[in-house]
Specification:
The chain is an alpha/beta fold. α9 links the parallel β6 and β7. It is globular and about 50 Å long.
Length: about 230
Amino acid sequence: MNAVRSYFNDFFSLIFPELCAACHVTLVSSEHVICTHCLYNLPYTNFHEQPDNIVAQQFWGKLPVAGAYALYYFNKGSNVQRMMHHFKYDGMHGIGNALGAIAGQQLNKSEVFKNVDYIIPVPLHNKRLRERGYNQSECFADGLASKMDATVLANNLVRTVSTKTQTRKSRFSRFENMQQVFAVKHPQQLQNKHVLLVDDIVTTGSTLEACGAELLKIPQLTLSIATIAYAV
């Protein structure tokens, strides 16, 4: 039976080959989502080894974060941008799970992130969630949780206002656009907990800053931040 199944899988792959989400080469049977070449050669930041990294610096004087991290550098026209486009707009939510697992393995090597209790994805408004069908940040969170001793908490931090895209806004406009957008439904659940707030890409950090500010209203909450990519 296994031989028959393998035969049909190989035959199906010949007709509908699975492509690497980053470089679009055909994946071999042992590869999943990302080819081996990209897996080793995408631009890793190694921010888990650098406490004062660029992402952490974005929140200095704004949010007291215990740790800040991004898995990859993001440049326009790069394989990371191509991969993130597929993830965010083409329904390829498995990319988030795969990258979350890679990031989770890295974060387990850091003393700062080892004691995370909850992983909280930046929420989408219900309207946007219905349009897209999934929250890309939650997919990343699920992948992280598969490698970390932490629980994904997806329905406590909520987005109460549907905002327009941030892509073409200035830093100040992004910050202004995020004010009074998020709320915590059950703050007592997060008291005395270490929370890892996660998103797909950090650019100005305004969305993460707004979410983090809301979370830090909770007594004795420790906040860390992780994203898939940092926009250079």
